[in-house]
Amino acid sequence: MSWIETIPFEKATGKLKMLYERVTGPNQNVDNIMMAHSLRPHTMEGHMAIYKYVLHHSGNTVPKWFLEVLGVWVSQLNTCAYCVDHHFAGMKRLLDDDARADAIGEAIVNLDIDAVPVDAAQRQAMRYAQKLTQTPGQMVEADIQALRDCGFDDGQILEINQVTAYFSYANRTVLGLGCSTQGDVLGLSPNNSENPEDWGHS
Are 141 and 4 in contact (CB under 8 A)? Predict the structure, then answer.
C-alpha cells in the first residue's frame, strides 16, 4: 500500500511481471517498497540491484546481522517505521539471539548507542552512520580515521558507508510515497548472497 497507484502482482505484464517474479517471497508476496516502483519498473530494477549488492553480497566482510543493525539504526534516525519493522525482523532472524536482538532494538528506539549490546567498534560505526544521516555536510576525514582506529579496514568502512547511504534512500522512498507494511511479510530478504542475480525473498 502506498499513496500512489501501484500494479498488483496478478495484473503485472512485461518487464514489471519479470521483476516481480524475481523479487517475490512466499505466495507471490511483493514488498510494498518494491511495489511502489511498479509504474516505473526500471527504478525497481535499480533499487533492487543496489539493495542486493550493498547488503546481501558475499564480498562483504562486516557481519550481515550488523549491517542490518545499521539499517535499523538509520531508519530509526529517519523515523521510518516501515524499514525499522522490516529490518529489525531480518536482523533478529540473522542474529538468532532474541534477547540480544530485543535489547538492540530497545536501545535503538531510545536513540542510545551506548546501551546497544555490540562491541566498541560497532558502536563507533553507529556513530558514523548517525552523523552521516543527520549532518552529512559535517563529515570530515577524522570520521573515517575513527573507524580505522577501531579496527575496520577501508573496505569495511565502504560497506558501512554504503549501507548507511542505501537506507537513507530507502527511507525517503517509503516516507515520500506513504508505503505501509500492510500485506507485507516482515523480515524477508534476498538471502542467497552467493548469487547476486538471485533477488528472491525468503
Answer: no
